[in-house]
Amino acid sequence: MTVSLRSSAWLLPVLVTMSFATDLVGALAAPATSPGSEATTGAAATAEASSGSSISDDLLKMRDPFKRPFLEVKKGTPKHELENYALDSLKLTGILTGPVRMRAMLLTPDGKTFIVSEKTKIGTRNGEIRRITSESVHVRENVVNILGQPEKIDTVIYFQHQNKNDERSGALNPASIPNFSPASSPGESH
Predict the structure, then answer these.
(1) Domains in the chain: ranges and CATH
(2) pTM assigned to the model
(3) Cα angle 15-18-23, degrees, rounded to a multiple of 5
(4) What are phi and psi of 93, to 5 degrees?
(5) Cα-flanking dihedrals φ and ψ of residue 114, to 5°?
(6) Among the four 34, 90, 142, 151, which has the fewest Cβ within 10 Å?
């Protein structure tokens, strides 16, 4: 009987898994003594126990597949206070324009305000401010994906206007003010 390589390709991972499982079970199982053989000595029992514990130590060192892997923080690098806050907890409250570059004003959940510029470290996931526009702050975070590979995620913090009447310009809508009557402008005469 001939089996094509394509149809049997799924079989190899199954066989490897089964082989590993039988080796592991065989190593963990206590050796059975036959009725005619003599009992194991204390030194042999200690050797068997130590080999069993080394396998369990190896199993304890394996990564839990249900927990996210994490990047190791480099020791000795000074940490900015904004690196203690998650990006979704920060609010962009203002943009400062200048002759050379723009700066942003960020508000933390505990009420602290920070003025930041590009290349400032920010966020709990090793983020850095890449660009500041008139309406947003663009942050790139370096994270480890579920496979343990480094990945870059771009996040945008948008400017949130305090006034909910006109979200586009932040200007107050006169129609929403009760008892408002438009005053005549200085150029008009009645």
Answers:
(1) 81-158 (2.30.30.830)
(2) 0.48
(3) 125
(4) -105, -15
(5) -125, 140
(6) 34
